[in-house]
Design a protein that fits this description.
mainly beta; 2 helices; five-stranded antiparallel β-sheet; 2 domains; Chitinase A, domain 3; about 40% strand; about 10% helix; single chain; four-stranded antiparallel β-sheet
């Protein structure tokens, strides 16, 4: 079976940044699982996996626009320190922030006596990402998986 719309795909990967630094890997653990065509993974990677089959390997670089998007300066905000209830705020802390467009995961990037700068961009926004992939499993999605729009079982959701 080849990877196409509604296929359940399990693959092993190593993810590196533009400088070759490893960001993540499935080595030593279960493969990544997703349902093809349901926006369960970044769009550029899903496009590259289209038409592949079990045993296929590839090294592919996904540009930022097709990964986590370009870094958007409008997502970086300087806020009064008094807006934060926690006293021990540290650079790198992540928290849920409410915006006019809903909830966003934000990261503290800078702290002064008066202000805290937060970044609502995904930590990998603006970065080209290289994936070294081996396709492990390709199968048809079950009726329940299709109804829910994601993979169940090993590597997927556990309902």
């Amino acid at each position: 079976m080849i990877i196409s719309e509604n296929a359940v795909v399990l693959f092993h990967y190593t993810l590196t940044d533009e400088d070759g630094n490893q960001i993540d890997s499935s080595k030593g653990s279960d493969p990544m699982a997703y349902m093809h065509g349901h926006k369960n993974i970044i769009p550029g990677l899903e496009k590259e996996l289209e038409g592949k089959k079990v045993g296929d390997t590839m090294i592919v670089t996904i540009e930022a626009v097709d990964a986590y998007g370009e870094h958007q300066e409008k997502m970086v905000k300087e806020m009064p320190r008094t807006s934060f209830q926690a006293e021990d705020i540290k650079v790198g802390m992540r928290f849920q922030a409410q915006t006019g467009n809903g909830s966003v995961l934000a990261t503290v990037t800078q702290i002064t006596e008066e202000t805290v700068t937060v970044d609502g961009n995904h930590p990998l926004a603006g970065k080209a990402l290289t994936f070294d992939i081996r396709v492990d499993t390709v199968r048809e999605a079950s009726e329940e998986e299709l109804a829910h729009g994601h993979v169940h079982g090993t590597g997927g959701h556990q309902h």
